[in-house]
Amino acid sequence: MPARPDYATFIARHAEVVERINSGEAGLPILGVLLRLAQEALSSAGMTFAEYGPSGGRIVAATGEAEWALGRPVDKESPTTKRLLTGLRTQVISLDRISGKFPDQATGHGLHTMLVTRVILGGLVIGSLQAFYREVEDLPTIEHHTLIEFVAINLAHMYGHQAGLPVHGDGPVVAALADGLAIIDYDRKVRLWNPAAEAVTGLSTADVLNATLPFPIPVLGQTLDHRLADGRWLKITAGELTGTVDSVVVTFRDISDQHRREGDRDLFVALTSHELRTPVTVIKGYADTLNSHWDELPEYERRHATDVIGQRAGELAKLVDRLLSAADQSGPTAGSPPTPFDLVESLRVAERDLPTALRRRLLVRLPVDLPKAIGDRSTITTILTELVTNADKYSIDGTAIELTAQSDERTVVFRVSDRGIGVRPEHVERAFDRFWQAESGDRRRYPGAGLGLYLVRRVIERQNGWVSLRPRDGGGTVAEVRLPRG
User: Fold this and answer.
1) Measured distance CA(325)–CA(319) in Å, rounded
2) Residues of the chain with CATH 3.30.450.40
3) Where are the beta strands (DSSP E) in 308-410?
4) I want to staple 450 with a disulfide (CB 3.0 to 4.6 A). Which of 258, 287, 321, 435 is the partner?
5) Residue ranges of the PAS domain (predicted)?
């Protein structure tokens, strides 16, 4: 069995984590520190933490021999995940006795046993914490159960403060709630506050009873959209309470997702007009020049103008494809069914399709004996182009961008590594959000619509693979793509 937890060391180092939180550190960096501490204390081979949202989950932090799983999506409907989310809060599971892609990949990495516990906040499961062990004899004891549950409580506490967490979204998701309902008197004092009102607002009955309603009341019979201090939106309605003289019934529900979608739509329109304007302006300018001054221009200038028009038209076509793909909200769609293919050959073909300037920066180190991957060969060019373009945009001129590949028992992986400005730990997941930019405003140093990595993740996950970012040792960023091994 694993060594007994060293409580003295754990408590001392846990105190350091608390001090770092109190000094302002938060989010993924602290999550990583806590997982590394837990791995050592639990004598495990590796740890993962999966964060859950309304539609699914994702492994947002991983350590030790489980680092390969970083960025991997989690299907909440799979038998394995359902088992983790029901029954005993903390369980020991032999990975070779359950079916599914994740257990198969984990056993392929030599991991045999999983100690898992749920992270719960306000009665809602917001994540799960997993510790992995290599040997059959490494069965965790009751002390290990207690310790991992303590770590899970710490994680729930961090999520409760919402300091950089959750990684995806604006707050813990409370799904399928009925409308909140309050009854107020003529002084706007709350006389009734139903359980759904507590869930929607986070305010208990004790907090609001006999106090002033904590948001405005619309004109009776009308509706009002109101933004709370935490950024969420409520749709509020009000009407007279039948059979009374001075009481009003107020109903309200959370419409944050609707507002977010409307914001995305407005942002998409703004970005589309902005990103299309530059190539269209250049094409029109050169076309007008050729049309008005064809006979006056020397041959080399005419050729240069037509070359620029062709180049910008190609950029425009790619941009339109990206914008249309990003506008599709239906999720990953079925394309060509995943089949075995030669990843090295596909990467070399994709390399030849890169613009000349990018090819000159790219240092390719691909093995000759890489196993086949299972996926869609036709998407590799798009994926490599997006990752290399992203690395080029954030790197100093003259530094190399490296393309490498390798495999393990269950996956084939390729990496695009640069020596650029690097990615902050708290941004490694947000970088995959649609339209997200590390910088905002008119003074952004790095242009773009924030669509490239978003599209890469969609395409890769459609092929049962996953993609992740991480800071590179010595400076820079590593983008890692994993596909099932053929």
Assistant:
1) 10
2) 7-161
3) 339-341, 362-365, 373-375, 401-407
4) 435
5) 173-210
Other residues' Cβ atoms within 10 Å of the Cβ of residue 463: 22
The CATH superfamily of 172-257 is PAS domain (3.30.450.20)
* Integer Cα distance of 196 and 247 in angstroms: 20
CATH number among 3.90.226.10, 3.80.30.20, 3.30.565.10, 3.40.30.10, domain 339-484: 3.30.565.10
The residue among 233, 231, 230 whose CA lies nearest residue 253 is 233
In this structure, what DSSP letter does residue 102 have? H
| Angstrom distance (rounded) from CA 403 to CA 216 | 56
Residue 156 three-state SS: helix
- Write the DSSP string, 387-453: HHHHHHHTS-TT--EEEEEEE-SSEEEEEEE--SS---GGGTTGGGSTT--SS-STT-SS---S-HH
Q: What CATH architecture applies to the domain 259-327?
A: Orthogonal Bundle (1.10)
Pairing of strands 411-417, 373-375: unpaired
Helix pair angle (7-22, 27-42), 10° resolution: 180
Strand ranges across the sheet with 477-484:
362-365, 401-407, 411-417, 477-484, 466-471
Of 228, 216, 172, 177, residue with least CA distance to 199:
177
156 vs 297: CA distance, rounded Å: 69
- CATH 3.30.450.20 range(s) for the chain read 172-257
d(CA 307, CA 327): 30
pLDDT in tens, 71-129: 999 887 787 787 777 778 899 988 888 888 888 899 999 999 999 999 987 677 889 99
**What is the architecture of the domain spanning 7-161?**
2-Layer Sandwich (3.30)
- According to DSSP, the residues that pair with 119 across neighbouring strands are 127
**All residues at 6 or more sequence positions from 68 whose CB lies less than 8 Å from its CB, including other chains:** 62, 105, 109, 408, 411, 413, 482
Count of beta carbons in the 10 Å neighbourhood of residue 240? 13
Residues forming CATH 3.30.565.10 domain(s) in the chain:
339-484
Cβ(148)–Cβ(129) under 8 Å?
yes
How many angstroms separate the CA atoms of 49 and 118, rounded? Answer: 10
Quick check: pTM over 0.70?
A: no
CATH 1.10.287.130 residue ranges in the chain?
Answer: 259-327
